[in-house]
Design a protein that fits this description.
Layout lengths: L1 E2 L8 E7 L2 E5 L7 H11 L4 E5 L14 H26 L3 E5 L27 H11 L13 E2 L6 E2 L17 H17 L9 H13 L3 H7 L2 E7 L4 E8 L2 E6 L8 E6 H8 L5 H7 L2 E5 L6 H9 L2 H12 L6 E6 L2 E6 L13 E4 L2 E4 L5 E3 L16 E2 L2
Parallel strand pairs: 3-4, 4-5, 8-11
Antiparallel strand pairs: 1-2, 2-3, 6-7, 8-9, 9-10, 11-12, 13-14, 14-18, 15-16, 16-17
Helix pairs in contact: 1-2, 2-3, 5-7, 6-9
């Protein structure tokens, strides 16, 4: 098992070695180039490497972007994910590389409008067939395959046997008239049964909300200080309201929203889903991945610490992140060039430890780490698109 380096990212890949074959299944883990190379070394070569090329992410599809900006952000995210897969495969050179995962489809009317992500040309996330096509074009000397349920591959001969039922399906089917409607009808009873487990909340919703965040705010002074902003929750439906959570280094406050306060994040969801989190039926990550919410941030800067606090909600896990981030050794440094200038930077990304000597794109005075797409201004070291520790870059004479 190969976990991501930072405890903030609690995903892990699996390396299986048996009968002379190595299989690296990356799952949802974004391994560094060094981790992928080490896995290949441990296995004595990789017969198969499986990489997720389409994330289960609420960004950008749940964000309130104008259409033109949504299209740009979606394509940027899609291409970044594919390039990250391309980079790791280039480092490991497996006999067979397999992109997997794909866009979700939404069957319940509440989220049906999000099915635009299925578009194979412009959707935020691409299916395995599209991923394999893009990767073949950009890394043509590598063998790529995509699989469906029931397919099999012989690791000795490389022969692929296709399941006859799955072979009749294409991801392009989702845009055929009536396909999703028939799919939704087939699942309607199951969906209704699941929905019944999340009733309309009672009048005590705000009190439970306040108690929940007061508990979270006391788990880690470090996280509260790194969040350091006001998050507004717009809770729709009966017994909902508009409530602000003020995270600051001095403490946390919860109260009714004030028109004179401009929040950095705004999260909108129905009271039944919030109540599911507060009563323990859902984790915050479950709610986020369900896409049953909308988000807005001003400025448009991702706060990894807010998401980390909500996801982990555990003092020991948060302490591990703090120890990792405050205990980094930055003595190993490299020199990079951009726009005619040289910069001294740490070899490893301050966010999650990617080796920037092989895992970064440098352009126009900025460095973009390919592991999580955190982008740093080389002159100041500041992260421009997310809350992160400074890169500690230095311009050389």
């Amino acid at each position: 098992m190969i976990p991501e380096l930072s405890p903030m990212c609690h995903d892990a890949a699996f390396l299986v070695v048996a009968d002379g074959h190595g299989i690296l299944h990356c799952n949802d883990a974004r391994l560094t180039a060094a981790q992928a190379r080490r896995a290949k070394h441990l296995a004595g070569g990789l017969s198969l490497m499986a990489l997720q090329t389409s994330g289960a992410s609420w960004h950008p599809i749940c964000y309130e972007y104008p259409p033109e900006e949504m299209a740009k952000v979606s394509m940027d995210k899609r291409i970044a994910k594919l390039r990250a897969a391309q980079r790791l495969v280039r480092q490991t050179e497996p006999d067979l590389a397999v992109p997997f995962a794909g866009p979700p489809c939404f069957l319940d009317p509440e989220v049906h409008h999000l099915n635009w992500v299925l578009d194979q040309e412009d959707g935020a996330f691409c299916d395995p067939e599209v991923s394999a096509g893009w990767l073949r074009e950009h890394l043509p000397n590598q063998r790529w395959e995509s699989f469906k349920p029931g397919d099999a591959v012989d690791l000795v001969t490389g022969e692929v046997t296709r399941d006859p039922v799955s072979a009749r399906f294409s991801f392009a089917d989702a845009f055929r008239p009536g396909y999703l409607e028939r799919y939704a009808a087939d699942r309607a009873e199951l969906i209704e049964g699941e929905m019944a487990g999340y009733p309309i909340p009672d009048a005590g919703l705000f009190d439970r909300f306040r108690n929940h965040f007061e508990f979270l705010g006391g788990l880690s002074d470090y996280f509260r200080g790194q969040i350091n902003m006001i998050v507004r929750f717009e809770i729709t439906g009966p017994n909902g309201g508009t409530w602000d959570v003020d995270f600051s280094p001095e403490g946390l406050k919860v109260g009714e929203a004030s028109a004179s306060v401009r929040p950095h994040y705004r999260i909108t969801t129905a009271g039944r889903w919030l109540d599911g989190v507060l009563t323990g039926k859902l984790a915050w990550e479950d709610l986020l991945i369900s896409m049953r919410l909308s988000l807005y941030r001003d400025p448009d800067v991702y706060n990894d610490y807010l998401v980390g606090l909500l996801k982990h909600a555990n003092a020991m896990a948060l302490d591990a992140v703090e120890a990792y981030e405050t205990g980094r050794d930055e003595r190993e440094r490299i020199t990079v060039r951009s726009a005619g200038h040289s910069y001294d930077i740490p070899r490893y990304c301050p966010h999650a430890g990617e080796d920037l000597s092989v895992g970064a794109v440098i352009d126009n005075g900025r460095l973009r780490c390919l592991a999580h797409n955190f982008t740093f201004d080389l002159a100041s070291g500041e992260c421009v698109n997310a809350r992160s520790a400074n890169l500690t870059s230095r311009k050389l004479p």
